[in-house]
Every structure is written in structure tokens, then in C-alpha cells.
Amino acid sequence: MSSRPIYSFEVFPPKPDAPVESVSGCFAQLADLHPDFISVTYGAGGGVNGGRLTCELAARLRTEYGIRPVAHLPCISYTREEIAEVLSMFRENGITDILALRGDKSPERPEKHDFHYASELIDFIRTQGDFELYGACYPEIHPEALSPAADLRHLKEKVDRGASHLISQLFFDNAVFYDFREKCEILGINVPIEAGIMPVVNEKQIRRMVSLCGASLPRKFTVMMQRFGHSPEAMRDAGIAYAVDQIVDLAANGVDGIHLYTMNNPYVAKRITQAVSGILGRSL
Ligand code: FAD
């Protein structure tokens, strides 16, 4: 790991009926900010086609913009054969970095029972070639975990089986992250843990994200929402300032990396990157 924190972005593919070109402009602007890598979520609609979309975008990041891509790969709704097909597509396109995920349970995507946990996917991927494997982690505990201790034990398992890098779920209270990081250290989880930062720039976004991931909201954050939530410009600036504040504090506390959930919004990513580039030891 380099001495400066890793700095990465996350993007998502367009809806299946939208052209891939619809995100090209966003990629070009994000690439100009020189992140260490950009991760691409698994294509909406799922199936092997979802993987095709992720693969196409990840390949473009690499060949057209010179950015290292990380492809997300969820597993519970796929068979071993389907995962093997997606992996060979990744390999053929020079995509060697994979965020191995279980995937969210959803009635729209029935489970196929070949994989139950991300760690099983990690085992499988290791039989399929030489991939660099990343895993997800949850400073506020995964919502289905039996207990915080069980969740951390399973995280350690994921790392022991081959995840060499962890990316955290978004959070708004850095104290929660520091507590989690300390527990990981005590357990001997000693791979880089990137902090997931989501700039919340409109009220609708926060409601949706929090209902999905259960992040707790510090008073400083809810007061900001109440005060500025109804003014798009004020909310945008406040959301950017909040994310910058979180990143400055994380960097001061020796974070391994920052993973910015860009929501395909290069304007917001640019403002944040400009504000923290010196702090993160990067030049623009
Ligand atoms: P796991 O690590 O398998 O953990 C899931 C649950 O099972 C946890 O409660 C864990 O404690 C428990 N568990 C693990 N192993 C065992 C075991 N052996 N026995 C019993 N219990 C166990 N989803 C997508 O569909 N597409 C994406 O692109 C995507 N990107 C994401 C990116 C990031 C950075 C993050 C944090 C999440 C992302 N997700 C994505 C969501 C993710 O798929 C869900 O959060 C999912 O519910 C859990 O995935 P996981 O890989 O962390 O699961």
C-alpha cells in the first residue's frame, strides 16, 4: 500500500434500455480526477447481461481512460456456470480486479443456491484464474448479521479466503468507522479498509439510501437536512461540505482509503476532489 490514502470512485451502469454512451461523459470527467481505480456496480436487470454491461464499462475505463477498473460481482442469484461465464468475459477484457459480493436478496431475483455468501464466491473465483479480490464491509454491521461479533468473524473469513482489500458501506458518523476499524485490527483483519463516502446532495437521495442501508445519522447531519433540504443549491453545497469534512477527519486519522460513491455525478466528485486533493497527497 502507498503511504498516501487510496482514492477511488464508484459508478453504476445505465439502465439496460439506455445507451452505454450515456455515461461516457461522466467517465471522462471522473478520469480527469485521477482516482486509483473506479469500481463499476453490477448491471441493473442482473443475469449474465448485467455482467456484460459492467464488463463493457469497466473495459472502457481501462482502454479509453487508462483507469484501473474494479468490477462488482454479486453471486446469490447466479449459478456457478453463469459466474464462470461472466469471469471469462472479464478476463478476456483485461479486467482482473473484482469486488466479490453476495448481492442483496430480492423477490425479483430468486436465489439459485450455488452460492450463499461472498466468501464462497471468493473461493470459486480463485479456481477460475488470477484475479485481485475485494470485499464489502459494514461499519454499522450488515443488517442480516446475527450479531456484530458474528459479522466481524465472517468478515475475517472473507479476508482469510482471499479478499485483499475491503470497501465499506457508506456511513455519516466517522466515530462508527473508527470503532469498526479498531475491532478489525484486534481480530487481525489487516488488509486496507477504504471508507465509503456518499455525498448527499438532495433530500430524496438520503431517504432512499438510509432506508436501504440503515446508516445512522448524526445530529449535525439531520440538522443540515432540515435546514437546507428544500433548497437544491444549499443542499448540494452542504452535502459536498459534509463529505469533505468527513474525508478531512478520516485522513487526519490515518484512513487507508476513501471510496467515493459518485452516483455518476462528476460535478460533485470534482468539487470534493478539488477540496481534498492536497490533504490526500494528490495533485490534480
Ligand atoms: P457477505 O459477506 O456474504 O455477508 C452477508 C451476510 O451473511 C452478513 O450478515 C454476514 O455476516 C453473513 N455471513 C457471511 N458469511 C457467513 C457464514 N459463513 N455463515 C453465516 N452467515 C454468514 N449489491 C449488488 O447487488 N450489486 C453491487 O454492485 C453491489 N455493490 C456493493 C458495493 C459495496 C461497497 C457494498 C458495501 C455493497 C454492495 N452491494 C452490491 C450490496 C451487497 O450485495 C449487500 O450488502 C449484500 O446484502 C451483502 O453482500 P456481502 O458481499 O457483504 O455479503
Shape: globular
CATH architectural type: Alpha-Beta Barrel
Unreliable segments of 5+ consecutive residues: none
* N→C terminal distance: 21 Å
**Looking across the biggest beta sheet, what order are the strands in?**
1-2-3-4-5-6-7-8
Give the number of DSSP strands.
8
Mean pLDDT, as a whole number?
Answer: 94
Written as H for each helix and E for each strand, in order along the chain, the element string is EHEHEHEHEHEHEHHHEH
Helix content range of the residues, please? 40-55%
> What count of structural domains?
1
List ligands, each type once: flavin-adenine dinucleotide
What is the alpha-carbon Rg in Å? 18 Å
Quickly count the helices: 10
Under CATH, the topology can be stated as TIM Barrel
Strand portion = 5-15%
Give a quick account of the main beta sheet: strands, pairing sense, barrel closure: 8 strands, parallel, barrel
Q: What's the CATH class, please?
A: Alpha Beta
Counting helices, strands and paired strands, the structural category is alpha/beta
Structural write-up:
Helix 1 (24-31) links the parallel strand 1 and strand 2. The protein is globular, with a radius of gyration of 18 Å. The chain has one domain (6-276): TIM Barrel (Alpha-Beta Barrel), CATH 3.20.20.220. It has ten helices and eight strands. By secondary structure, it is an alpha/beta fold. The longest helix has 21 residues, at 232-252. Helix 8 (219-228) packs antiparallel against helix 9 (232-252) and helix 9 (232-252) packs across helix 10. It has helices spanning 24-31, 47-65, 80-92, 118-126, 148-161, 174-187, 203-213, 219-228, 232-252, 266-276, and strands at residues 6-11, 37-40, 69-74, 97-101, 132-137, 166-170, 193-197, 257-261. Helices cover 46% and strands 15% of the residues. It has an eight-stranded parallel beta barrel with strand order 1-2-3-4-5-6-7-8, surrounded by four helices. The mean pLDDT is 94. The structure holds flavin-adenine dinucleotide. Flavin-adenine dinucleotide (FAD) binds at residues 41-42, 72, 74, 101-104, 117-119, 136, 142, 144-145, 150-151, 154, 158, 167, 169, 196.
